[in-house]
């Protein structure tokens, strides 16, 4: 029954002079999201509104699902757009709309009229009262409830008249691409995909880097990370995923450094390599899925030691989250089921039984000096041997 959607966006409407940039980015993201949907759409901006009109038959459910992935959208309103042909015609149309949309009439309602076009001959309050009366006459089982109506009948008098009574939730946030790009350290775990989602939600485009350690980690573990990137890309758009072979670096650290420091030293090399790719491809920061105290390598001391090798800012959007809260988001965004598949992770293969929880930076640096002979070559080899794939939904 709906041939159009009215898209509501909140945050981006308050950006002053930059507003049109944000709207254009949102329109672009909507276009990208609707590309795989069967059907033809026209997308237009009008006075702080975005309209999507179907020009052909289309899949309603798929359209709504795709739109619910677009950051910047607060509400998706299936809307009926009418030419202004006088109040009599409008009341008839509102009544047939309600009849078709709500087969069960045992409902309360409220008419919420807004006159954005002041040349319309009736004021909002008049429209509310008059239309409310007509609806009551047409459907005796319906009742008015001005505080908590089941159905909010929105009637907006604009260029066309907009009738809608449903606001399906969008993900909020800001359109991807309006806040630069960052490099996500993406593992196969639960946390890092959520960290990528949360950063992208603020308008940041995402690339990713994954470290694996074949043959200690399997092809299936790698595929799992590609799958996670693909799920994320439904929100972020295409992700350039750099897959780095970390085996020789890990073995070399294992050979030269005290085992209780392995995790911290490995993480420092991961950050260095991730930063290399970030700088090479225009990312403005690194993103990890760390949260304070979750494991030994995420104490305040460990995070400080990891951070120390980076010159770009490191964003840790989950820093204050409990595991359960992170799981909640991962279920909502659809990464959880993939994240819990039981494939080995390169970090867990060489972990010490008793890793340091309060690493001393000077001691760590002294251990790293033992790597002086070969580490630069190994890092360069890992970088030049990396495989980059573009992951899309
Ligand atoms: P996750 O669930 O994201 O794997 P985690 O709780 O297992 O996190 P760690 O293994 O300590 O924690 O990893 C902390 C962060 O370091 C991850 O969130 C991720 O950003 C990054 N990271 C860890 N391992 C890898 C890897 N193999 N490749 C890329 N990034 C990684
Ligand atoms: Mg992990």
Structure description:
By secondary structure, the chain is of the alpha/beta class. The protein has 14 helices and 15 strands. The protein has helices spanning 19-34, 60-67, 87-101, 124-138, 191-201, 219-236, 247-256, 262-280, 300-307, 323-333, 336-339, 346-349, 361-369, 375-384; strands at 4-8, 41-46, 49-54, 75-82, 108-115, 143-144, 151-157, 161-164, 168-169, 181-185, 205-212, 239-245, 286-287, 314-315, 387-391. The strands form 2 sheets. Strands 1, 2, 3, 4, 5, 6, 7, 8 and 9 form a 9-stranded mixed beta sheet that branches. It binds adenosine-5'-triphosphate and magnesium ion. Adenosine-5'-triphosphate binds at residues 185-187, 189-192, 209-211, 288-290, 294-295, 297-298, 345-347.
Entry keywords:
alpha/beta, six-stranded mixed beta sheet, binds adenosine-5'-triphosphate, binds magnesium ion
Entry summary:
The chain is an alpha/beta fold. The chain contains 14 helices and 15 strands.
How is this fold's topology laid out?
Elements: E1 4-8, H1 19-34, E2 41-46, E3 49-54, H2 60-67, E4 75-82, H3 87-101, E5 108-115, H4 124-138, E6 143-144, E7 151-157, E8 161-164, E9 168-169, E10 181-185, H5 191-201, E11 205-212, H6 219-236, E12 239-245, H7 247-256, H8 262-280, E13 286-287, H9 300-307, E14 314-315, H10 323-333, H11 336-339, H12 346-349, H13 361-369, H14 375-384, E15 387-391
Parallel strand pairs: 5-6, 5-7, 10-11, 10-13, 11-12, 13-14
Antiparallel strand pairs: 1-3, 1-4, 2-3, 4-8, 4-9, 7-8, 12-15
Helix pairs in contact: 5-6, 5-10, 7-8, 8-9
Bound molecules: adenosine-5'-triphosphate and magnesium ion (MG).
Residues 187, 189, 345, 347 line the site of magnesium ion.
């Amino acid at each position: 029954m709906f041939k159009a959607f009215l898209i509501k966006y909140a945050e981006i409407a308050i950006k002053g002079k930059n507003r049109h940039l944000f709207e254009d980015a949102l329109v672009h993201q909507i276009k990208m999201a609707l590309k795989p949907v069967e059907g033809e759409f026209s997308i237009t901006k009008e006075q702080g509104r975005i309209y999507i009109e179907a020009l052909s038959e289309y899949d309603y459910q798929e359209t709504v699902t795709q739109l619910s992935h677009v950051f910047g959208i607060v509400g998706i309103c299936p809307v009926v757009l009418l030419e202004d042909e006088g109040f009599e015609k409008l009341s008839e149309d509102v009544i047939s709309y309600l009849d078709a949309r709500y087969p069960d009439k045992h409902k309360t309602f409220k008419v919420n009229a807004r006159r954005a076009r002041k040349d319309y001959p009736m004021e909002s309050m008049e429209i509310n009262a008059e239309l409310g009366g007509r609806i009551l006459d047409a459907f005796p089982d319906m009742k008015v409830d001005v505080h908590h109506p089941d159905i909010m009948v929105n009637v907006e008098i604009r260029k066309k008249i907009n009738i809608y009574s449903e606001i399906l939730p969008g993900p909020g946030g800001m359109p991807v691409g309006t806040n630069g790009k960052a490099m996500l350290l993406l593992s196969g775990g639960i946390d890092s995909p959520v960290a990528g989602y949360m950063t992208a939600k603020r308008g940041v485009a995402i690339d990713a880097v994954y470290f694996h350690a074949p043959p200690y980690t399997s092809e299936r573990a790698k595929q799992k990370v590609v799958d996670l990137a693909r799920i994320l890309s439904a929100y972020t758009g295409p992700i350039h995923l750099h897959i780095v072979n970390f085996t020789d670096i890990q073995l070399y650290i294992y050979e030269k450094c005290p085992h209780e420091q392995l995790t911290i030293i490995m993480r420092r090399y991961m950050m260095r390599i991730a930063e290399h790719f970030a700088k090479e491809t225009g990312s403005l920061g690194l993103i990890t899925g760390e949260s304070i105290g979750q494991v030994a390598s995420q104490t305040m001391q460990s995070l400080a030691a990891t951070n120390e090798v980076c010159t770009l800012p490191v964003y840790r959007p989950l820093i204050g989250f409990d595991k359960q809260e992170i799981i909640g988001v991962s279920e909502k965004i659809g990464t959880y089921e993939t994240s819990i598949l039981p494939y080995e992770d390169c970090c867990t293969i060489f972990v010490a039984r008793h890793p340091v929880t309060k690493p001393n930076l000077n001691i760590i640096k002294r251990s790293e000096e033992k790597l002086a002979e070969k580490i630069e070559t190994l890092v360069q080899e890992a970088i030049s041997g990396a495989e980059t794939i573009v992951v899309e939904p």
